[in-house]
Every structure is written in structure tokens, then in C-alpha cells.
Amino acid sequence: MTWYYQNTVVNEIPSGIIGFVYCISNNATGRKYIGKKLFHFSKTTYKTIKLKNGKKKRKRIKGKIESDWKTYFGSNLELQKDVEQLGVDKFHREILYYCKSKAECSYIELCEQVRRKVLETNDYYNGHVQVRVHKSHIIGKL
Predict the structure, then answer these.
(1) Which long-range contacts (CB under 8 A, 24 or more apart) does 42-49 make?
(2) Which CATH number belongs to the domain containing residue 30 in this structure?
(3) 38 by DSSP, 3-state: which?
(4) How many domains are there within the chain?
(5) Residue 61 falls inside a structural domain
(6) What one-character DSSP code corresponds to residue 62?
(7) Could you tell me which of 6, 52, 66, 76 has the fewest CB atoms within 10 Å of its CB?
(8) 77 found inside a domain
């Protein structure tokens, strides 16, 4: 199953892009899901190192790992159940917006959910809308 952006297949992460806002459509029923996905996530691992004085110390190592964005079908359990029952070929995954920050992803996801009135109809899988974005992360950056 592939992602599409402006009717073009997406196989690689565009430069300078952190994540995206997407729409997954059920071709059988017409229901949709609006969400966001980050291309990478932070992972912290620990390594034990030996100091010059002979003592051992745990060193924290932070890194970025690519997410499961290529195979991702949203966080909604009802949507995931439908994908499992109907098969991935019955769904269309479209990237609506590329985002340069996590805050931008969250804000645009919220705007798109409100614009489409996802909570006011059963045409969408979305069951709730939740976001925490600080104004300073948005002003002058969209």
C-alpha cells in the first residue's frame, strides 16, 4: 500500500519535512480518517562505559529512528479493524500537507478536522479531536 501526494506516489521523505497530515479513505464505504504522522521519532538508549578511574557510568545516547509511516493506517481502532477485515487494497492513503515541525503538524491536523467537521458526521472514523500547540510555534511559521 502506498501514500499519494498530489496524485504522485511517495516513497521517500522530502528534505526538511518532519511529518504530514493525511486522509485515509475507505473505498468500500466512503468513510475517511484525518490524522498526522511523523517521519521519525526520538529514541533514547543507554550504554555502560568505563571511566578512567575504573568506575562504570551509564551514558544516554539520543537518536532518531524512522517511523512506520510507509505501512501506517492511523491510530483509530475502528479504522484498523476495517483495514484488517476488508484488506489494504480497499483504502486510499493521501498526504494532504507536508509539515516542517511537530507543532505545524498538530495545528494543520486540527484545522483540517474542524474544516471537515469530522465530529459532526459518521462519514469520518475520527472519534475525538485533541491538540496542544503553543502560539509561539505557529505565528510566522506557516
Answers:
(1) none
(2) 3.40.1440.10
(3) strand
(4) 1
(5) no
(6) E
(7) 52
(8) yes
